[in-house]
């Protein structure tokens, strides 16, 4: 890991350069949002922030999203409430859940315009980015969110005055990538990728905008409060 603390970048210090924004920036925003709400107001539904490891290597291992720890935790919660967690109860709870997959997205880099899907690229300082579908070579291996769920989230964000944007993970046939959303969507859960855009994603020093960090937290708070 590169040595050194995060530092401010830019004449107006609007940006933060740091190692490993991906994905501490979204993890922090998610946890902050949930703690804000659980301090002040009761949530109408059960809210959770799942912090999982190993995403960059395919979510494998006992602490990755391919494992059963989240399913098992939901079963344990139902068991504590109902005194017995039937398989169907766990399946129903998972299917009726909704999730924002809080992962970063690549912001357009003016040095490499040929890597962008022009007109669909996320912009640094444009607010957190919703990605309807991930995947490589357009949608291969994608998680593609349900259109009606995307519409619901758009309304939630607009009502909460979140400054947000839609984006894609790079030019078709060139860019692409995956997140953990597909591992949760397989339960029938509605999942949308929604996170902070980064310049230099996966480089030793990644750059995030303070404006985007703040609005990511605001977006997650609005999602929990729905
Ligand atoms: Zn990454």
In short:
This protein is of the alpha/beta class and 226 residues long. It has a four-stranded mixed β-sheet with strand order 3-9-5-7. It has a three-stranded antiparallel β-sheet with strand order 1-2-11. The chain has a two-stranded parallel ribbon with strand order 4-10. 34% of the residues lie in helices and 15% in strands.
Question: CATH superfamily of the domain at 15-43 and 98-224, please?
Answer: Zn peptidases
The name of the CATH topology of the domain at 15-43 and 98-224 is Aminopeptidase
Average pLDDT works out at 91
Which CATH top level class of the domain at 15-43 and 98-224 fits?
Answer: Alpha Beta
| Oligomer classification | single chain
- String of helices and strands: EEHHHEEEEHEEHEEEH
Overview of this structure, please?
This protein has 226 residues and is of the alpha/beta class. It contains 6 helices and 11 strands. The chain has a domain at 15-43 and 98-224: Aminopeptidase (3-Layer(aba) Sandwich). It has helices at 21-40, 69-82, 87-95, 147-159, 181-185, 210-224, and strands at residues 7-9, 15-18, 98-101, 105-106, 129-131, 135-136, 165-166, 176-177, 190-195, 197-198, 206-209. A hairpin with a 5-residue loop joins strand 1 (7-9) and strand 2 (15-18). The radius of gyration is 18 Å and the shape is globular. The protein binds zinc ion (ZN).
Supply database-style keywords.
15% strand, three-stranded antiparallel beta sheet, Aminopeptidase, alpha/beta, binds zinc ion, 6 helices, four-stranded mixed beta sheet
Write the layout of secondary structure elements.
Blueprint: E1 7-9, E2 15-18, H1 21-40, H2 69-82, H3 87-95, E3 98-101, E4 105-106, E5 129-131, E6 135-136, H4 147-159, E7 165-166, E8 176-177, H5 181-185, E9 190-195, E10 197-198, E11 206-209, H6 210-224
Parallel strand pairs: 3-9, 4-10, 5-7
Antiparallel strand pairs: 1-2, 2-11, 5-9, 6-8
Helix pairs in contact: 1-6, 2-3
This protein binds zinc ion.
Zinc ion binds next to loops.
């Amino acid at each position: 890991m590169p040595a050194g603390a995060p530092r401010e970048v830019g004449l107006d210090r609007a940006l933060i350069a740091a190692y490993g924004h991906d994905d501490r920036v979204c993890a922090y925003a998610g946890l902050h949002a949930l703690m804000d709400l659980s301090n002040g107001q009761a949530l109408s539904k059960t809210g959770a922030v799942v912090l999982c490891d190993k995403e960059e290597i395919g979510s494998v291992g006992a602490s990755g999203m391919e494992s059963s720890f989240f399913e098992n935790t939901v079963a344990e919660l139902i068991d504590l409430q109902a005194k017995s967690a039937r398989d169907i109860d766990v399946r129903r709870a998972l299917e009726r859940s909704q999730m924002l997959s809080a992962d970063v997205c690549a912001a357009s880099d003016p040095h490499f315009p040929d890597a962008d899907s022009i007109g669909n690229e996320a912009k640094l300082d444009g607010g957190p980015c919703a990605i309807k579908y991930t995947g490589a070579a357009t949608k291969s291996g994608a998680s593609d969110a349900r259109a009606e769920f995307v519409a619901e989230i758009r309304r939630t964000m607009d009502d909460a005055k979140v400054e947000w944007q839609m984006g894609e993970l790079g030019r078709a046939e060139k860019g692409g990538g995956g997140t953990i959303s597909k591992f949760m969507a397989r339960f029938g859960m509605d999942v949308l990728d929604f996170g902070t855009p980064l310049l230099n994603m996966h480089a030793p020093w990644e750059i995030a905008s303070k404006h985007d960090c703040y609005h990511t937290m605001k977006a997650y708070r609005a999602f929990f409060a729905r």
